[in-house]
Amino acid sequence: MKLLGIDYGQKRVGLAMTRGGMVFPYRTLLKSTRDRLFAELLAIIAAENVEAIVLGLPLDLDGSATLTTRQVYNFRDSLSRRTDLPIHLVNEALTSFEARDRLRQAGVPQRRHADMLDQMAAVCILESFMGKQ
């Protein structure tokens, strides 16, 4: 099954994709307008024949909701009105920390971390989901 992982953020949206049972960073979308963001996402979903979406849900370490949690729920609801694909939510606690650590371990120069952090966080979200299946 081809899955799209999404790390939804205030300024950027990191994407990861499965290929052959493995997860790879895919792309980072910059949030300009809501319509453009959804148009880009839907184009990627169609071009890549995505079968399901895995969306990171930002919760506090104690599991409580935050302001960003509500924004992700709103994003999920808007996306679900635009596609019939299943959308799975996965707790994304500490994924940014893990993503930063992975980039360091891979030897990615610090100046490139900002470009790749959201994609790597989406990788962590998607791997977390796949590990629970």
Largest sheet: 5 strands, mixed
Number of helices: 4
- State the strand order across the main sheet: 3-2-1-4-5
Radius of gyration: 14 Å
CATH class: Alpha Beta
What would you give as the CATH superfamily?
YqgF/RNase H-like domain
Distance between the termini: 12 Å
Total number of β-strand segments? Answer: 5
Which spans have pLDDT < 50 for at least 5 consecutive residues? none
How would you portray this structure in words?
This protein is 46% helix and 26% strand. With 133 residues, the chain is an alpha/beta fold. It has a single domain (3-131), classed as YqgF/RNase H-like domain (Nucleotidyltransferase, domain 5, 2-Layer Sandwich), CATH 3.30.420. α3 crosses α4 (110-131). The longest helix is centred in the last third of the chain and has 22 residues, at 110-131. The model has no long low-confidence stretch (mean pLDDT 88).
How does the SSE layout of this entry go?
Blueprint: E1 3-8, E2 12-19, E3 22-30, H1 34-47, E4 52-57, H2 67-80, E5 87-91, H3 95-105, H4 110-131
Parallel strand pairs: 1-4, 4-5
Antiparallel strand pairs: 1-2, 2-3
